[in-house]
Amino acid sequence: MNMMFNLVVVVQVISALSIIALVLLQHGKGADMGAAFGSGASGSLFGATGSSNFMSKSTGVAAAIFFGATLALSLMANQRATTVGGGVMDKVVKPVPVTGAGAIPTTVPAAPAAPAASAPAAAAPVASTPAGAIPK
């Protein structure tokens, strides 16, 4: 299966490079790169009256091969993913909860009970700095 996958990748790359080369060699409106190599209007596949030349037909064939190879690669990748058994997150190791003195509590402690209404108010905490050191 791996050898077939690599073969289809090679076919796809070759067809992509041939599409690039054929498009660059075609004769455009302003005598592009195709005119430098002798490509003219008389180079059509079915003679001077043909509707499309050899370069455009071979570009279409290379494009069909490219699309077929792309479809085959997507089908192979989908089949490979289902046979392997899941996605990328299936192989992640889940952390083991730590217990003991160094464990981080996972539950929030309950809020302290509200003081009774008849209890006197608690004294304000004592500041650690002397009163004279606080800027005014």
Automatic annotation (TrEMBL):
* Record carries keyword Membrane: yes
Keywords, in A-Z order: Cell membrane, Membrane, Protein transport, Translocation, Transmembrane, Transmembrane helix, Transport
Compartments in which it is found = Cell membrane
Membrane-crossing ranges are 59-77
Per the record, the domain of life is Bacteria
Pfam families from the UniProt entry? SecG
Q: Provide the topology term for how it sits in the membrane.
A: Multi-pass membrane protein
The record's InterPro entries line, in alphabetical order, gives:
SecG
Tell me its family: Belongs to the SecG family.
* Reported function: Involved in protein export. Participates in an early event of protein translocation.
What is the protein name given in its UniProt record? Protein-export membrane protein SecG
Organism per entry: Janthinobacterium lividum
